[in-house]
What we know:
By secondary structure, the chain is an alpha/beta fold.
Amino acid sequence: xxxxxxxxxxxxxxxxxxxxxxxxxxxxxxxxxxxxxxxxxxxxxxxxxxxxxxxxxxxxxxxxxxxxxxxxxxxxxxxxxxxxxxxxxxxxxxxxxxxxxxxxxxxxxxxxxxxxxxxxxxxxxxxxxxxxxxxxxxxxxxxxxxxxxxxxxxxxxxxxxxxxxxxxxxxxxxxxxxxxxxxxxxxxxxxxxxxxxxxxxxxxxxxxxxxxxxxxxxxxxxxxxxxxxxxxxxxxxxxxxxxxxxxxxxxxxxxxxxxxxxxxxxxxxxxxxxxxxxxxxxxxxxxxxxxxxxxxxxxxxxxxxxxxxxxxxxxxxxxxxxxxxxxxxxxxxxxxxxxxxxxxxxxxxxxxxxxxxxxxxxxxxxxxxxxxxxxxx
Length: 377
C-alpha cells in the first residue's frame, strides 16, 4: 500500500535495541514489562506490541480499551494499572489481565466474578507510597488485606507503587523514603500471611537509579526509555555512557503546496506573521489536531532536504506554513520531518518540549492515533 502524505515511522531495530539495553541492567530472574499505555506513548499500540512481543515478559496498559487492542495482537500476560469500572471487570477477567487494585469495592466485585466463573483472579495491590494519587495508605492496609484473605478467588501476587521524582538526579531522598514506605507495606503484607509476595516500583528512571535494592526479586515497568527517550536531561547526562538509546519514532509528512508570496504578505490566521521580503513558502498538511502543537506557531522548524525551515504564522488544525526560500529545488511532495532525523540533522521531542515548556512524554503521547503508523527496519 502506498504511504499517505503524512505518517509515523516506527523503527523495529530501535525499539528492540532499547529493550535489549535495559535487559543488560536487570538482575537475573527479573521480569521486564513494556508499558504500552497511551497508544504506546503515541508510537502505536498494536505496532509496538507486535515488534516487542518476543522480547519482553509482559505488557502494561491503563484501561480496558487498551487491553482489547493488545489482545488482538498477543496472548502474553498484561498488567492493567488504571481504574476499571465494575461493569468492565468481567470482560477483564475473560481477557486474562492482572489488575492493579486499591479499593474494597473492586475487590468484592472481582470476588463475585471469580465465584461466578470459578476462576482465580490475580491482583496487584497499589500502595500510595508518598505519591498522593491512587493507592492504599499504610493505615488502611489491614482492612484491604483482610478482605483479600477471606476470599477464595483473589490471589494477591504483588504490591506496587510509583516513584514521584526519581528522575531528579540531584535529590533521591524522597525516592528512598518512598521505597522504604513500600517495604514497610510489604512487611505488613507478609506478616498478614501472604508469604510469596513480590513488589514493583521501578519504571525507566528507577532502573537507572541507585536506590538500594529497589528491584530485588521483582518486575520492572519499562516506559519512556523503551521508546529511546530519556526521563530527564540529568539522567541522560549520567547514563548515556552506560546504555545507548535510539528514538523509535520519526514523524513524516510531505509538502502539499509550494508558492512564492510577496513582501508584506500575511501568513495564516491572526496575522501573526507578515513577510519581510518575497518569500517561498510550503504548506505542510499536519496541524494541532495531529499533535503539532499550536504553541509551535512562529516558534519551530521542520527539516526539508536536510535543511531547517522555520514555521511561519499560526499552526492551524490541519496545516501550517514553513519558509523554504533557502531550500534548493524544493517541490511538491518533498519529504518533511516534523520529529526525527533527516540526513545529518534531527528534531528531538526534547527540543519541541522545551519550546512548549513541557516534557518529551507529552510531545509523543499526544500524536493523533489516526495518523498511520508504519513499521520500518
